[in-house]
Design goal:
Hypothetical protein af1432, 496 residues, Beta-Lactamase, alpha+beta, 63% helix, rod-shaped, 6-stranded antiparallel sheet
Length: 496
């Protein structure tokens, strides 16, 4: 019985042990499967807790392992994402660096292109400036040529020949020197920039100075810097300092007319070769104008001398009018000088004074020397002599004012003069001067029909007619002049 109970107990223990073992093996197999699943990457496996301490701890280890694996996987994924991000960042940095290098290269190329463009722009500006200067000079040259071609007054031509190139080239001092064939030297006819204008008409020997060298060699001369040469002194014979200068000949074919000289530039820069060429071109344009005006002057002088000789011959036949034209000219010039008239007007008065009675050539000597009162017809012939004188001079290339003075020297401010009854506003000042001088000399010299008036009587008569027959300003100057001439004895000399 006891043995039976013991056997049953043993079997029960064995069964219980088998049951426990089976449970344990089942749990172990579950854990192993879970471990296999975790190794395969399945982190969703659920591990069942066990009351057995060993299995429970194992299960906890497996659960920790599962969590660790999950964390590792997440970490790995995070690392992969970080690696991918770093890769993108690296690619971006590499791309940015490449773009930066490309941009830097483009900037360098742009900068180089800008520098090239700036240089080209400067070159273009320089060429435009040169082109504008060439256009301006060509325009100025054309203007000079046109102006010289239109001008016939000698002094105006002199002025233009010097002043226009001075303005064009920015010179401080300019001279025009004309060659005197008679004396074989140069005469300074016109100058600009000299402090002392009295140096005009100064004479220079051929071979002396720059202009003399040009005259002797018939070639232009450029001195860019006087300090760099020893041939010519930097101090001019006129006393001023020369730093740079140009001198060119004025020639027509083989005839040497003179020289234009420009000294020092206003901007302090030296004259250049192209500027000498320009001045030489202006000189060639001026040559014909100067040649024509000098030739015309020679013709005028010849004709003037011929007319003057004719007047002298006529006056020589008339004892009463002998020397009248010369005295009228002298009186007129003295009045003009006291009135501070310019040289151009004094030259008009000088020539018109000599020629004013040229029209009397056509008046019979019997009328001029008639001792009794003239008939109306005879007086008309006398009154016609200014118009006849104008017609005699009209074909000649004189200054028109000379002819008008001859025509108007018997006109009156009140309009009652002859031959045209001109009003005061239409009578030249030069003619008004001649009228007073002519009347004063006529009254103070004997005529066939009356004796000479005293100087005071003649002056009183002229002053009485001031404003009607004679210009008041001229009368006032003549009065002061006569009183001065009486006190100095000059008046007696003129009538001796």
């Amino acid at each position: 019985m006891s043995l039976q109970i013991l056997s049953i107990a043993s079997l029960s223990i064995a069964f219980a042990s088998l049951t426990v073992l089976t449970y344990i093996l089942t749990r172990i197999r579950g854990l192993n499967r879970a471990a296999d699943d975790i190794q395969r990457g399945d982190t969703t496996v659920k591990i069942v807790e066990s009351r057995l301490p060993v299995l429970g701890q194992t299960a906890r280890h497996y659960r920790f392992l599962s969590m660790a694996v999950t964390d590792l996987e997440q970490m790995e994924k995070f690392q992969q994402r970080m690696l991918a991000y770093e890769k993108k960042e690296m690619e971006y940095l590499l791309e940015t660096e490449a773009l930066s290098r490309q941009l830097k290269k483009q900037l360098e190329e742009t900068s180089k292109a800008n520098r090239t463009a700036a240089l080209l722009n400067l070159e273009l500006e320089d060429r435009n400036r040169s082109l504008n200067e060439a256009i301006n000079r060509l325009s100025a040259l054309n203007q000079v040529s046109r102006m010289l071609g239109m001008e016939h007054d000698r002094q105006q031509i002199y002025r233009m020949v010097v002043s226009l190139p001075m303005e064009l080239l920015g010179a401080e001092i300019g001279h025009l020197l004309l060659y005197s064939e008679e004396d074989d030297d140069l005469v300074m006819e016109y100058s600009v920039g000299l402090a002392d204008r009295s140096e005009s008409r100064r004479r220079i020997n051929v071979g002396d100075g720059m202009a003399g060298w040009v005259a002797g060699n018939r070639k232009p001369l450029l001195i860019e810097d006087f300090a760099q040469q020893e041939t010519f002194s930097p101090i001019s014979s006129l006393g001023y300092e020369r730093k740079t200068a140009i001198s060119v000949p004025i020639m027509t074919k083989d005839e040497f007319i003179g020289a234009i000289t420009l000294i020092n530039r206003q901007d302090g820069q030296p004259f250049q070769q192209d500027e000498m060429t320009l001045l030489a071109t202006i000189a060639s344009e001026a040559a014909m104008a100067l040649h024509n005006v000098l030739l015309l002057e020679k013709i005028q002088k010849s004709y003037f001398s011929m007319v003057q000789a004719l007047i002298t011959a006529v006056e020589a036949k008339d004892v009463y009018t002998r020397g009248h034209s010369e005295r009228v000219t002298q009186y007129s010039l003295l009045i003009a000088e006291q009135m501070n008239l310019p040289l151009s007007q004094m030259e008009i008065i000088h020539q018109a004074g000599i020629l004013h009675d040229i029209g009397k050539i056509t008046v019979e000597l019997s009328i001029l020397n008639k001792p009794t009162r003239l008939s109306p017809a005879e007086y008309e012939k006398i009154k016609n002599h200014p118009a006849v004188g104008y017609r005699i001079l009209e074909p000649i290339e004189f200054d028109e004012r000379i002819k008008l003075c001859v025509l108007q020297h018997h006109e009156r401010p009140d309009g009652k003069g002859y031959p045209n009854g001109a009003s005061a506003a239409d009578i030249l000042l030069e003619a008004k001067v001649l009228a007073a001088a002519d009347a004063f000399d006529a009254m103070t010299t004997s005529r066939p029909y009356r004796d000479a008036l005293t100087i005071h009587a003649a002056l009183n008569e002229i002053q009485r007619c001031s404003g009607t027959q004679f210009d008041p300003q001229v009368v006032e100057v003549l009065g002061g002049l006569v009183n001065t001439m009486i006190s100095s004895g000059v008046l007696e000399t003129l009538h001796s």
